[in-house]
Specification:
metal-binding; 2 helices; 3Fe-4S; iron-sulfur; Ferredoxin
């Protein structure tokens, strides 16, 4: 879900593993990243400082 919700920040490799494309996305990606964290079915994502 994260790669679909915030494709400028997340991608999937050939094995289906999610990778980040940037360590600190810009402010324009904040809403998409927050949504991706909420939608993550595995609960594997967390916002720093949260």
């Amino acid at each position: 879900m994260c790669a679909l919700t915030a494709p400028e920040v997340f991608d999937q490799d050939d094995d289906g593993i999610v990778v980040t494309l940037t360590e600190q996305p810009g402010p324009e990606a904040t809403d998409a990243v927050r949504e991706a964290v909420q939608l993550c079915p595995a609960g594997a994502l967390k916002l720093a400082g949260s």
